[in-house]
Each structure stands twice: as structure tokens, then as C-alpha cells.
Glycosyl transferase
Amino acid sequence: MNIAGLSAWLKENKLIAAALFIILALRIIFIGAMGLMPQDAYYSFYGEHPALSYYDHPPAIAWLLKAFTTLFGKKVFAIKLADTVVTGLTMVCFYRLSLLFLSRHNTQKALLLLFPTLMITILSLVSTPDVPLMLCWALTLICLYKAVFEERKIYWIWAGVMMGLAFDSKYTAVFLPFGLLLFLLFSARHRKWLWSPWPWIGVVMLLLVSSPVIIWNLQHNMASFKFQSTGRTGGIEVRPLDFLGVVGHQAAILLPVLFFGLLVMLYKTVRKYRLRIAAVPPKKLFLLCFFLPMFLGFFVISPIYWVKLNWMMPAYISGIIWVSVYFSYKYIRWQQIVAVIVHLAMAVELLFYPVPVNSDDVWMGWGDMAKSVKTLRAQYPDDFLFSADSYKTSAVLNFYFDEMVYGQNILEKSALQFDYVGTDLDALAGKNALFINSTPEVGDEKDEKAFVATLKEYFTEVHPLPPVICKRGGKVVRKFLVYRCLNYHPDGIE
């Protein structure tokens, strides 16, 4: 679309243009309003300890954040910039991918459906492995299209490289080669590629590019693979209503207009083709093979395992391209209206915090806590610092401090990546420590205070210090309990 064409479109679609501008402006505001999230700090911690891979995730997010913090300094701005830039590139690749399947008119609709989603807002604001995964997923589909439909054999190699980088981002990238296999099996016209060496050369490239992850796991008794597979079976429990919870949070991140539109068109497609998969046009089949396995697979397991809201995100790249042709501008306008309402509500919550979030996965109070701990730290310069809320408080303090802040491995508990950074806990024997304990629910610190009993198993004495209180508008929004622990025993006190 040239400048004149764009100008004409904006005049004709003033509501959509205004909605897009409002959403973009709010996202820019959110960057400053949110500040550092625990996830941002944790994956930055990855980058501060270079390795082939990491305990809970592959290394791509560490590479990304390290690159930006090296260029712009170890600042919250650099972290947010990394997420925003890469998500912007994902949008560009989504547009290029859409053009391979759709007319320019329908590509425009696909972009208008995707851009205002809460999914894109989350990806551009919070550092997670999904940020590089989404980019690599889109690039993989572009390369596979050119390899399969345009028969440009060199793109099999590039597809393997991109799949390898996707796997270096997150293990759910296994759905990429699985989707490709499904497509080649079900598409009679393209099944010939299974007997060609080129896809298998692509597989070799996938393995080569993802070799850092494989090597790290071989060196560490397959620790990461176990954590993300058998390690998660402990969460299996029959909870049928969790299915509705997954429906709810997927409708939230896509916005209800798009999400339920996907479900309606999926139902109509199943009714139309039933089990006659060979009758599905090849390009539509290609898109569905990279959408349905992940989308339906996670819904199937949702009654027995809680599916996180970000797990299905890559599936929506091809899913939105597929469904966009069925959306009229009437529904796209509603998508924009709902998006503006949701983002305005998010702005109120971020700026004024009217609804408390009883979780450590929250944006509020982390920077204030770090400032208070720095002041406290000056009073006890020889004490080491640690926390025990999985990784969150320790990761945030590690971001703001120029020293090692330890995790719950101090108390002989699994501490995720903190167990794999080469710290010698025995060297801390006999030292004193400051323990920072986050209280997710302000006013209910019963469990956190009871944690003192655990501390006394490893320290001779435990003394409470004044808590760190974070306020907004005179209202207490976060609270961190602080204890000074004397004479550390790494193996516990008998």
C-alpha cells in the first residue's frame, strides 16, 4: 500500500486507526509504568552467567537480553527495548508470512486482528522465552513455505536453522517439526518431500543449531529435559473446570472477538471436511498443521494439568492467518473496540492499582524493595543476601546489586538456575545473612512468618528486622519481611 492508499484507508477507517494509535500509545506508557518484572530479572540473570543452556529454559532469551544490556547497559529500559524490538520484528515477519497465503487486503485484516491483542502487549513488555520463540516460529514458517510450495531447496536448510533457533528459545518448538511431518503425510501433492534428502538435511541443521541445549543436558544428567517433561507430572490432577480457565485466559490474550471467531470457524471447518483431510486445500492444511496440534493439544490436557496462558501463543501465528479471511471489517472494528477497553482497564490497573494482585508475578514494588534493601545492606556490609520464593526476589536483587544474591539453595531446596551457576555454598559457612521474604498477599503473612522455623534449621539465630513496605497513594501495596540470620550452616544444624 502506497502513501496515498494508506491515507485513503485511514480516512475510511477512522475508528480502527484511532484504536491502533491508542493501543500503541498505551503500550509505550506501559513500558515505564511496569518497570522490572521478576521474569525480566531472572532471564537477565541467565545472561549474566553464560552457558550453553539453562535449567528451566533454553538460552535464546539469555542471548537476547545480554545483547541489549551490553549495548545499552544493565537497565530496565534495555530489557524492555529487547522485548519490544523483537516483538516488532515478529509482527513484520507475520505480515510477510501472511502475504504468502493471502491477498494484501486479507493480509491487512490478519494484521489488524493480531496487533491489538493482549498477547502482543505481553510479549512486548515482559521478557519470556516466548519472545524469541515467536520470531523464530514465524521465520520457520516462511522458510518452510518457500521450501515446500516454491520448491526452493536451499530453504530446507534455512528452515532447519530457524527450527533449531526456535528450539533454542523454548521446547514447545517441537511442534514445528511435528507440524511439518503432519503436513507432508496428509498432503498427497507434497508427500514426495518425505523421500527427498532435503527435509532430512533440514533436520540435521535443526540438531546442529540446537546442539547447545542438547550438550548442556547431556552434561547435566538431562536436567532441563526432565524438568520440562517428567518434572511437570507432579502437577497432574483431575480438575475439569480448569478447561474453562484456559478458555478464559486464551480469550483474554487474543480478545474474545478473535478467540471465539477461531472456535466458530474451527467448528465449521470440521463440519465441512469431517475426516476428509486430503480434501483440505494444501495452503490451508499447512496453516492448520501448525495451529491445531498445539492449540488442541493443550486444551486436551487442560482438565488434568494447568496450561499457562503463553503456551499456545505460537499456534496463533498460522491460526490467525487462516481465520482472517472469514472476518469482516465489522468484526475487526469490534476487535479494536474491545482491545481499547481492555488496554484502558490495564492502564488504570498499572497506574493506580485499584485491584490488588496477590501474587509475586506482579509489577508492583520490586524497584522500591531493591532501594530499601540497598540501604539496609549498608548497615550489614559483610552479610550475604538470599531469598526463597522460587526465583523472583533473588532474581530482582541480582539485577540491581553488583554481588551474588542467593536463592533457596541456601536452605537445601531446589533453586532452578541458581543451582547451576557454580556457587560454593560451603564458603558461606559461619557467615551472617539478610533474608528477604516476599509476601504476595498484604496483611496475611502467616506462612511467611512461619518460614522462620526453616531458617532456624540452618542458622544459629534468626532476628526479625523492620519489613520493607511499598506504598502507592498512601496505600500499602507490597510487603517484604526481612530477617537477619546469624552463623550459617550449609548442611543444617543437627
In short: The mean pLDDT is 91. DSSP finds 23 helices and five strands in the chain. Residues 76-101 form the longest helix (26 residues). Residues 3-352 form one domain.
